Amino acid sequence: MEVTFNKRWLIAIMGTLTHLGLGTVYAWSFFQKPIAETYGWTNSETAWTFSLAILMLGITAAWCGSRIERFGARKLAVSGVILYALGYIISSFALSSGSLFLLYFGFGIVGGIGLGLAYVTPVAVVLKYFPDKAGLVTGMVVMGFGLGALVMSKVLAPFFLETFNENLPQVFLFIGITLLSVLPFLAQFLRIEKSNADLQSSEKISVLPYVMKADYLIIWLVFSFNIIAGMIFISFQSPLLQDLLKSGGVFDMQTLEAKGATLIGISALFNGIGRFFWGSVSDKIGRIVTFRLILLIQIFVFIMLINTSDVMLFSAGVCIILLCYGGGFGVIPSLIKERYGSALAASIYGITLIGWGIGGIFGPQITAFMIDHFPENAGNYAYFVGLVLLSSGLGLLFLINTKNASQDVRHKKKSLKYK
Asked: Measured between alpha carbons, how far is residue 287 from residues 138, 339, 412, 417 in Å?
């Protein structure tokens, strides 16, 4: 694939900016408490909106991963960002009518499908254009997704809340219009030039034997555990922080909301930087070793969080957890390409993102359940679940076979060639 130096970096930048817009979904905790209190829904009922969006993201990404060559990266990306923006617009009507199920349909189903179509395409495109810098550049692109919560919590949401006097339906409507105005232009740049040796080979080689092997199942489980641990905070970090502040004597709602938004913004920086940082680290020390380090750091942080109620330590812990959460997304694309080869990378990466969808259900719902049923100890109970999952994941990673399955893929491609 002949692509100039400047062109491939332009594509990488546009992919990063596309992910920046999509990553605004990660600021859901900014809206979780206001929506639940305004409409009288439980934390669990409200959190299902975000959970459905991430579930549909994972399912759609799995479908999309094997069809990028067939439909074209640009077509899938543009369709995805339009659907994601429409999810906000439909949600504005849901909030106007007080319909929880329309909110599920708009933000969760329509928006989630859009996320799945548009998320996997920039990663697949840059993997094609940057075979020499897979960890670095995929880390850069998915960094944009992690930083999206910063854009939403500190720029878009505060601006529209102030403009429309905290009228949530209007806020969601104009967020959707803004995304619809910007993201399709960015997604236009995401295309893969047609030199389809990979397409022919990937059509002949089934991914099923590879995703059913123990090594891949371990990678999928560990990735999912890492997602659940991060989602414990992504969906509820603002409410959890506000509860800690209230226990310390802070009750002014504007102060509580402002501090919650600040934590979302700062932790989003760590989420974004973690994708780039850990992706780059994995280029140097290896993907599996990097993943082990990511899990080990989080284990220590969860132990600390269980044993403290200090606001500063909580905030620092959230930032470190999201640094490592983002790291999982920074490492996994290059890990899959390295182990299974470029011909199968997009398909297997899409299947792996189903773990994101599963984590998007369990993480938020664990925290929501604890808040609804054990409000005084909700955080500690949720952190204990995270600690158990991460410890299990770390143990599983020591069972991984270090041989790259891509060697087997290349052998199969040669066999097919001479049949």
From this structure: 13, 10, 24, 31
DSSP state of 207: S
Over residues 178-217, the pLDDT tens digits come to: 999 999 999 999 887 655 444 444 445 678 888 899 999 9
Please, which residues have CB within 8 angstroms of residue 411's CB and are 6 or more apart in sequence?
none
- The candidate with the shortest Cα–Cα distance to 226, out of 294, 314, 148, is 294
Global pTM? 0.81
Q: Which two tokens mark 48? A: 């299902």
The pair of three-digit structure tokens given for residue 66, joined into one six-digit string: 């094997």
Q: Domains of the chain by range and CATH? A: 5-417 (1.20.1250.20)
Q: Which two tokens stand for residue 85?
A: 């923006």
Q: Rounded CA gap, 222 and 389, in Å?
A: 9
SS3 category, 342: helix
Instruction: Estimate the crossing angle of helix 237-247 against helix 378-397, to 10 degrees.
Output: 130
State pLDDT tens for residues 265-297. 899 889 889 988 998 898 889 999 999 999 999
d(CA 143, CA 133): 15
